[in-house]
Amino acid sequence: MEKLIQKEDGSQELFDTEKIKKSLLRAGADKKIAEYIIKKVENELKGELVKAKDVYRLALTYLKKKQPPVAIKYTLKKAMMDFGPTGFVFEKYIARVLKEYGYKTEIGKIVKGFCVEHEVDVVAEKNSEHYMFECKYHNRNETKSDVKTALYIYARFLDIKKASDENKTNYNFSKAWLATNTKCTSEAIKYAECVGLGIIAWHYPDDKNLEYYIENKKLYPVTILPGLKLKQKEALLDSDILTIKDLLGAKPGTIGNYINAGNEFIDRIFLEAETLYT
User: Which of 109, 151, 173, 231 has the fewest CB atoms within 10 Å of its CB?
Assistant: First the structure.
């Protein structure tokens, strides 16, 4: 009998070992180790219905034993959830990612539209063109950005672009983007593709998605470090230490002051960070 997996929102789908394998390989797991982990998970999770969080927990447990640095990368999605509870840190993080790809960025900028003013999460500039990024942060894996979100963003962009086209603003807007740390609904994607709204989301698009932009330049959020407690992560984020690169670029003593930790602990945290960034 086929096994079912229950997701956090209560919905169910077929237990798909290929899906688990892809997530392990995407994190950098060796193919043989990924297959070994899948067998372990299948053998230990009995019954016709298993919980998604139990699959993740077991896979991570065995990955830690076999490939510790890869296990850290495997927690990337969870690390994004630790940006909460509000979306402001995610906005700063997206701006930081864009900066690493050659964009000049402004956060929370009030931009004149043709009809009304708008607060734009991130204004990005490259080659004299401006891009509007609206960031939708969710602290639950199963929460998706829906078509209403896409409609809202694009309607605001049209007002902003009209002002831009008629020289009523100093910006030269050419495109709007929705950036989210989870997924988008199929209707949101369908609408976005139809009107030309860009999307950077978890697993979407297939090639240059959120994971790609993070992993391509190793822009892992500092919240991915397993040695840090939640309060310590929050302290670093409040101090504008958003990525592993930010942490490694700071002095150990400074980081120690931010999180109120001694030299031995800080040395261990820096070692964890170096395994991801080197």
Answer: 231
